[in-house]
Amino acid sequence: MSDAPKNNEWKTLDKDLGRISQIEHATTYVARPLVAPGIALAFIVLAGLTAAVFFGQSPGNLVVVAAAVFGAYMALNIGANDVANNMGPAVGANALTMGGAIVIAAVCESAGALLAGGDVVSTISKGIIDPSGMPSSQVFIWAMMAALVSSALWVNLATWVGAPVSTTHSVVGGVMGAGIAAEGLMAVNWGNMGAIAASWVISPVLGGAIAALFLAFIKAKIIYVDDKIAAARRWVPMLVGIMAGVFATYLAMKGLKHLIKIDLITALVIGAVVGIATYAASVPMIARQSQGLENRNKSLKVLFGLPLVFSAALLSFAHGANDVANAVGPLAAVVSATQSGLIEAKVAIPSWVMVIGAFGISFGLFLFGPKLIRMVGSQITKLNPMRAYCVALSAAITVIVASWLGLPVSSTHIAVGGVFGVGFFREWHAERRLRLNLSKGKKGKVIAPEERRRRKLVRRSHFMTIVAAWVITVPAAALMSALIFLALNGLMSA
Fold it and tell me: Where are the transmembrane segments (predicted)?
């Protein structure tokens, strides 16, 4: 009888511990989605404190602290949205795991920003407005702040809905909107804006066409031949050499332009030398890799895996070197105008500002990047290493061609356009083979028209969402920037 109360006590204790355990599990479940925003907030606060340490906390310098906070916020959003375009195809093709992609991208993005990001940047992105027309340095500072805040908010919204947008175009829209609000419509260089608007169409179409052409070549010369392995030994080293040459040219022109000035001809010579050397090194390597492989398409994926990883890393390096200016350009303008009281078209970027941009991009990728990486890599169309290789190569080639033609293009539009190009080419090729088989009297499985539409290889819902986001990026960022500028100017004038 004396043991009964003790047993009841143990049962009561077990129930209480079980309830506590359930509360702990529930708390962990609820808190998990808040971890990433919490870390991001800590980084933003740290950026503001860094600016306060360098500039003190006088009323005039509080503007720099606020600009540092918004610059860090913009850098986080660039990492969350823009970097997915470089890593998405490699992850979608299973050449990289999500964790491996994030680590490689974070290292290469930071290295590109810090080593080749440059010390001089045009604070008025692509000459959209004339800074000398601003009434005062104070108005210029509010305009840059408005551009920074509006572009960051727009990229954040696009990431939330799952649309990869151009951060360059977001900044351009922000600068344009603030310029119009400050000086009127005559403040904008409409010729440059027209060229940027044209790039909305040129970038994805050119990227998609080049990716589709390379995929057609791979299908004709390697996939649809009797001896696939022998064909791969002949053509894959050449394709790897082309990729190495193109990326060497791309990095010489874009990623290293701040370290040393290289013209297009010199960059092409560098690319040719690197491409030939890589081809010579790839021939024995591909021969070893292809030994013992079965004569089927699955075996070919092995040969494209390593080149795809290198291409993703190089794209990230060049992206960090170029797009860090989107985050820190307006911030550098605010710092310069606050320190000197002068409005300058080009300013030196302090090292602490560049660090905020580089680490912000890496943190944004690590905390929020997987969503857009999955979107670009697997949710638009199914990618394998050959298709992803075509996307990466087309991105580099398109940037080189656009630079030669003097066209302002978006790396986001090019990469996503490459994914669309690969997907639409696969649809066209599948329909063509079906018609060819029917013309030869070969009977295949009869599929109803509704089911054939449902089986399209490019998801139309994602296609329409992304295109709509591209079209409204500049006007949406411009409208938000104009409203924010008017609010800031009115608040400070009151």
Answer: 34-55, 62-80, 92-118, 139-161, 195-215, 235-253, 259-281, 302-321, 349-368, 388-407, 413-430, 463-488
Q: Is residue 52 part of a domain?
A: yes
Residue 452 has pLDDT above 60, yes or no: no
Q: Are 236 and 304 in contact (CB under 8 A)?
A: yes
Report the amino acid identity of residue 194.
Answer: G
CA distances from 287 to 229, 325, 390, 434 (A): 9, 43, 22, 34
Could you please report the per-residue DSSP string of 2-14? THHHHHHHHHHHH
d(CA 323, CA 74): 11
State the chain's maximal CA–CA distance in angstroms. Answer: 98
Q: Under a CB-based contact definition with an 8 Å cutoff, are residues 329 and 123 in contact?
A: yes
Per-residue tokens: 315: 């794209």
Q: For residues 15 and 307, which has the higher predicted lDDT (pLDDT)?
A: 307
Contact 178, 149 (CB under 8 A): no
Q: Which residues contact 132 (CB under 8 A, 6 or more apart)?
A: 343, 345
CA–CA separation, 367 vs 188, rounded Å? 36
Among 115-119, 196-200, 268-272, 306-310, where is mean pLDDT lowest?
Answer: 115-119
> Which of 476, 493, 487 shows the shortest CA–CA distance to 174?
476
Copy the structure tokens of residue 426: 């696969």
- Alpha-carbon distances of 486 from 73, 129, 415, 467, rounded to whole Å: 21, 17, 36, 30
Number of domains in the chain: 1
What average pLDDT score do residues 304-317 get? 82
DSSP 349: P
In order, the DSSP letters of 424-442 are HHHHHHHHHHHHHHHHTT-
Is residue 16 assigned to a domain?
no
Instruction: Evaluate whether residue 17 is within a structural domain.
Output: no
Check residue 134 and report its DSSP letter.
S
Domain of residue 289, residue span = 34-493
Q: The tokens of 284 are what?
A: 């024995």
Highest mean pLDDT among 15-29, 53-67, 104-118, 418-432 belongs to 418-432
In a domain, 125, yes or no: yes
Of 242, 237, 230, 168, which is closest to residue 203 (Cα–Cα)? 168
